[in-house]
Amino acid sequence: AQSVTQLGSHVSVSEGALVLLRCNYSSSVPPYLFWYVQYPNQGLQLLLKYTSAATLVKGINGFEAEFKKSETSFHLTKPSAHMSDAAEYFCATRPGAQKLVFGQGTRLTINP
Amino acid sequence: EAGVVQSPRYKIIEKKQPVAFWCNPISGHNTLYWYLQNLGQGPELLIRYENEEAVDDSQLPKDRFSAERLKGVDSTLKIQPAELGDSAVYLCASSLSTGTGELFFGEGSRLTVL
User: Fold this and answer.
1) pLDDT tens digits for B48-87?
2) What is the pLDDT of residue B6?
């Protein structure tokens, strides 16, 4: 079954530093992949999605992710972290039909 | 455009009591989902509706959980009786069945069972 694995349950970076959140997928066919963000006590909000149109996907708030088939990865990056980026980030895949399967999440902390 | 609306946002009950959560999806979205999110974990699908039909309920604990989506719009998720382990956030989401899979989530209903 298609799934995603997020490496690192907690990532901490300094304000202004590079953000890198890791996600690897398992799929025998080209997958749909997503990154969602969840701020405290809120629902999930879509950051970006990969649907095979382009390997480098740009999302909201300056985030982007690159689909690398050779590495089965879809890592999320942002060149310069901002305090407002502190949140929980979830990678997800669509294994078929109309549903998403989520990873365990990575909590991003930004240090001043 | 209004997003997915859930209520209540917070609910505290004693074990063995019943509880119900309500969800109003985005207008025009025919697919509705209920996800369970335990603390520090990713959401897990409980049930998915296409219009008023439950098309994926394999992860719904049917001995105590039930859901309905009358008229293919609003949905209610019920737990009876609640157990301590049911303490979690219950997320509702909706999407277009013809879309690329993007789900739109509500803010969730946080349940605490004492």
Assistant:
1) 999 999 988 989 999 999 999 988 899 999 999 999 999 9
2) 97
Amino acid (one-letter) located at B17: Q
Contact of A24 with A7, CB cutoff 8 Å = yes
The CA distance from A47 to the nearest CA of chain B, in Å, is 10
State the Cα–Cα distance between residues B110 and B107, nearest whole angstrom.
9
Distance from the Cα of residue B56 to its chain's centroid: 13
| pLDDT < 50 stretches in chain A | none
pLDDT of B99 above 70 = no
Q: How many CB pairs under 8 A join A and B?
A: 63
What is the share, in percent, of chain B residues with pLDDT greater than 70?
Answer: 96
Task: Provide the token pair at A37.
Answer: 């963000």
Residue A91: closest CA among chain B residues belongs to which residue? Answer: B42
| d(CA B18, nearest CA chain A) in Å | 23
- CB-based contact B43 A45, cutoff 8 Å: no
What is the DSSP code (8-state) at residue B80?
A: S
What's the sign of the alpha-carbon dihedral B15, B60, A4, A87? negative
